[in-house]
Amino acid sequence: xxxxxxxxxxxxxxxxxxxxxxxxxxxxxxxxxxxxxxxxxxxxxxxxxxxxxxxxxxxxxxxxxxxxxxxxxxxxxxxxxxxxxxxxxxxxxxxxxxxxxxxxxxxxxxxxxxxxxxxxxxxxxxxxxxxxxxxxxxxxxxxxxxxxxxxxxxxxxxxxxxxxxxxxxxxxxxxxxxxxxxxxxxxxxxxxxxxxxxxxxxxxxxxxxxxxxxxxxxxxxxxxxxxxxxxxxxxxxxxxxxxxxxxxxxxxxxxxxxxxxxxxxxxxxxxxxxxxxxxxxxxxxxxxxxxxxxxxxxxxxxxxxxxxxxxxxxxxxxxxxxxxxxxxxxxxxxxxxxxxxxxxxxxxxxxxxxxxxxxxxxxxxxxxxxxxxxxxxxxxxxxxxxxxxxxxxxxxxxxxxxxxxxxxxxxxxxxxxxxxxxxxxxxxxxxxxxxxxxxxxxxxxxxxxxxxxxxxxxxxxxxxxxxx
Length: 468
Hints:
The protein is an alpha/beta fold. It contains 17 helices and twelve strands.
C-alpha cells in the first residue's frame, strides 16, 4: 500500500462573505462561535463511545481489533470458496457497501478476469424491485449454475425489515434448492449478536455471523462489519480505511475549531441553513465518489430531519441533501444552482492526484480544439471544477471543497468519519436526536399491515381509509 499523502482538506472560503457577499458568513462570526464549538466538542468527547454514539469507537481500540479479527477470519474461510458475493440489505445496510466498492475498486471490477480482481464479483441488492432482483439472481445463476461458488451476505440487525427479509427468503430458498443440506455454509449474516429474528434463524440453521454492534445505527455502520466484510472480501484495505477514520477522529476531537473540520463544517451548514440555505449539495468531481453522495444523503437527511427537538418543541428541522456529479452536472444542474433560488450550499469533492491519467492526443489538426491537445483529462476535470467554483462565487452562491489527496482507503476512511462526526455536531446545534428516525417507522408498520403481518391489521385499515 502506498503511504497516505497529506490528509483530507476542507476549504470553506466560498462560504464566507468575503467571497459571496451577504449570502455568506463573516469570518468574525466563526471566530466568535469558537467557545460554543469547543463546548460541543467537550460534550461529544464525554459521550463518545457510549449509547448511540458507539460508532465513534469503531476505528479505535478495542472494537477495531475485535472486528478486524472476526472479519478477516471469515474472509479467510469464505474468500477462497467465493467467486460471487451477493449482499442483501437496504439503507445503511447497503449504501456504504456500494460506496466503498465504487470508491476503491475499478468501475469494471465485476467484468475483470478472476485473477485480476481483488476478490469475488460483488452484487448488492438494496431494493425489492422485482425486475432488478430477478435479473441479478439470473446472472449469478448463469455465472455459477450450481451456486457452489456463491456466498450470500444478509445484513439486518433485527431480521424484520420487510425488504431485506423478502430478499433473504428468496436467496435462501434458491441456495437450498441448489445445494441441499450444505446451503447454510454459503450464508453470512451480519446481525444482532444476541437477539432478534435473524439471530434466531442463524442459531437454528448454523450460519456464520458477524455483529451489528450495539449502539451503531444503520447509517453509522459502514466502518463496522456491516461495511468491512464485503469490502475485505473484494480486496479493499480495511485496516488503512480504519487508520484514516481514526486519524480524522483525532482531528475532530480538538477543541480549537481551526483544527477541527467537523465542527467548522457543521457550523457552516447549520448556520447557513438557518439563513435559508436549506438545500445541501454534495458534488464529487470523480465518478468513483458519486455513490458516497448517496451514502451522505441518507446520513444527513435521516439524522437531522426531525419534527420536534430534544425539548419537545415542534421545529421541523432538517436540510435537503442533493447529489450531483462533476463535471456531468455542470450540464444539468449548475443553471439551477447559479440562477435559481439562492437556497443551496454546494459542497465540492475533488481528488488531488489520480492513480492514472489519460492524455489528450495532438494529432487532430483543428484550431478550435488545439487548446485541449497535449493536456490530460485530470487537468481538464480540475479546470472544470475550478471554473464552476468561480461561477458560483460570481453568483454569490455559498460553496466549500473537500479535497482527497489520493483516492485510497485511508482517505475514504477520513471522509466517512468526517461526515459522521459532522452529523453529530449538527444534531447538537439543531438540538435534535440525530440517532432516531420516527418518520421512517410509520412507513415500516404500514407496510407490515398491508402485507398482512399479524398484529398490524389496524394499519391496513388506516391506510385504506386515508388513501381510499
